[in-house]
Amino acid sequence: MPKKVTLHDVANAANVSVATVSKALNGTGRISAATRRQVVATAQRLGYHKSTADTHRRSGLVGLITSDYNGRFSLPLLTGAESTLGASNHAALLMSSHGRADLERNHIDQLAARGVDGLIVVGDTTNPRPPLKPSTTMGLPVVYTYDPSTDPNDCSIICDNVGAGAQAIEYLLSLGRRYIAVIGGSEDFQAAKDRARGAQRTFTLYDFHPVEVLFDMWSEEWGERSARILLDRHPHLDGIYCLSDEIARGAVRGLLAAGKRIPQDVAVIGHDNWFVFCSNSHPTLTTFDNNIPLIGKMAATYLIDAINGRPHRGVFAVECPMIVRESTDPMRRTALDNSDRIFRKR
């Protein structure tokens, strides 16, 4: 009968102390990520198995790694995640990779060295991303948010941009608008492709066609310029679906400058519910909210499930609710959301 591998065997093979082996395998104490990896690799090579008591020892910490440099996506997601993590006696550690793969790996090393129980990876583009390498995660469960993993066996949670695009056109058609255009930013973004695809799905369903679909930049300047282009080419234009609030705010400015009334002459819909653009000036924008706090809550729930041995696999889409404001409803008068008002709400 083969001899059972002990902590002493792992320590001797890895040339470290028994205490260091214990810390590395249980995710406790302050040891470097490199040492932890060395110990774990040695234990696996020798066939060491932790006892049942060790297996259930948890740190109560979860790492959130974001490429979102200004907090626009990561902070609402953290808010949603914390409500669920707190109920499970977990706390979150937030670190920013600034979109750099080397910094992302370094942060994971640091979090692993501190014994986190799992990772939530927060994107900011909606573009599919390569999964973290097993040599990086070292067995930690991972949930990807906003930017899905390209591996279908991973757990990814995203916004339902296709559904939002479909609903936008259905709503404009329900208002009696028949000359509808779509304005997007760069087609390199998956969000642009998905929102436009959803819009086209509804056009096809009702046997309509957009008067034009334009792509260029995610900017107010492009929104204003594209509105002028559309009015020149399509004088009967009566509805615009913009794939971001930033574009929508520019389009509104261009339409108003041309003497059009919003929404009486042209109804405008945006996407993102970013208060800086959608509710900081009149007319306030009808838009779609990306429901990021709910994505965070769902990510935390799925990560806790994975930590407890019940992983979820595949891509899960969260509905983007539509928020109706002045740019599509002439009877509506919406209070402006400026920074002072937001701070006073706290």
From TrEMBL:
GO terms for molecular function: DNA-binding transcription factor activity; transcription cis-regulatory region binding. Residues 5-59 form the HTH lacI-type domain. SUPFAM superfamilies: lambda repressor-like DNA-binding domains, Periplasmic binding protein-like I. InterPro entries: HTH_LacI, LacI/GalR-like_sensor, Lambda_DNA-bd_dom_sf, Peripla_BP_I. Keywords: DNA-binding, Transcription, Transcription regulation. SMART domains: HTH_LACI. The lineage of its organism: Bacteria, Bacillati, Actinomycetota, Actinomycetes, Bifidobacteriales. Gene3D superfamilies: 3.40.50.2300, lambda repressor-like DNA-binding domains. It comes from Bifidobacterium callimiconis. It comes from the Bacteria. This is LacI-type transcriptional regulator. It holds the Pfam family Peripla_BP_3.
